[in-house]
Specification:
By secondary structure, the chain is mainly alpha-helical. 68% of the residues lie in helices and 0% in strands.
Length: 278
């Protein structure tokens, strides 16, 4: 492995070379990272669809999403204070998705090994060696989601100023004014930064914690290295995730009952391609 000064460092797999800046994140004993292509990303997505067909869990996700949609709609009946947060909430699924999908990683792992893949087996993830680290990293994502919603609300308050009095008033504020344009540009830029940080740190970290008994530090380092070594494939994956979540969120979030399982299974297969097996 080549370090920042250009010298060579040895590691357990000398046939796998890490380029700078990914090389500076190397620690002895960390999992090895592969270089992949965009074709591998599309293959992972197809394999995710195949897993979903073999292990359909959309009913489970629908049972979770329907109450959420009901609460949001009920709240809107009593006022329009939540309207400015609807888009940030929908966009925020990209921040929580890696943690929400941990049961799907377990099902894909079990299918790969030829084990029982009934939906209830997704709960076996709670018995994996790295589950404590999974919840620790999940708490970090929850804080990122809360921080994103807080900043989104602050940006709306500072740029737009007044709360909407109706649905038409909200769309007029956002879509028909210069302040609305400023809000959309600023909000999407800040949201992109949040999503990029989560993508880079979690693209393989959660599946790895399900698959191996490693710590949060090793999982996050490996995820960042994988992203640095494969910027175009990982960027494509981020675009696929964002597009899928957007399409799934449009019909009152219900489409996420299909999109989330497919992306979750596909994430497992992308992890398998990015990180060398033990």
């Amino acid at each position: 492995m080549t370090n920042i000064t250009g010298t060579t460092q040895s590691h357990p797999h000398p046939d796998i070379q890490l380029r700078w800046p990914a090389s500076v994140l190397w620690r002895d004993g960390d999992p090895q990272v592969r270089t992949i292509t965009t074709a591998d990303v599309w293959t992972s997505l197809r394999e995710g669809v195949d897993d979903f067909r073999a292990m359909p869990t959309h009913v489970v996700f629908a049972c979770i999403l329907y109450p959420v949609v009901g609460i949001v709609l009920a709240r809107l009946l009593f006022g329009y204070e939540m309207l400015p947060l609807l888009y940030p909430m929908a966009a925020g699924f990209a921040l929580l998705g890696p943690f929400v999908a941990i049961g799907l990683y377990e099902l894909s792992r079990r299918r790969e090994l030829g084990l029982d893949i009934s939906p209830a087996r997704a709960l076996d993830v709670l018995h994996r060696p790295g589950i404590d680290a999974v919840f620790t990293l999940g708490a970090v994502l929850a804080l990122a989601f809360a921080g994103w919603l807080y900043l989104a609300n602050v940006m709306y308050t500072q740029i737009i100023g007044s709360e909407p009095t109706s649905l038409s008033d909200f769309f007029q504020q956002v879509m028909g004014t210069d302040r609305g344009t400023q809000l959309m540009v600023t909000g999407n830029l800040v949201g992109f930064i949040f999503a990029l940080l989560v993508l880079v740190t979690s693209v393989v970290s959660f599946p790895m914690l399900i698959d191996r008994d490693v710590g949060v530090g090793a999982a996050v380092r490996t995820s960042v290295r994988a992203a640095l070594e494969n910027p175009i494939p990982v960027a494509l994956w981020g675009l696929i995730v964002a597009s899928g979540l957007l399409l799934g969120a449009l019909p009152l979030l219900i489409g996420l009952a299909i999109v989330l399982p497919i992306l979750g299974h596909a994430t497992w297969h992308l992890y398998r391609k990015l990180v060398v097996k033990e």
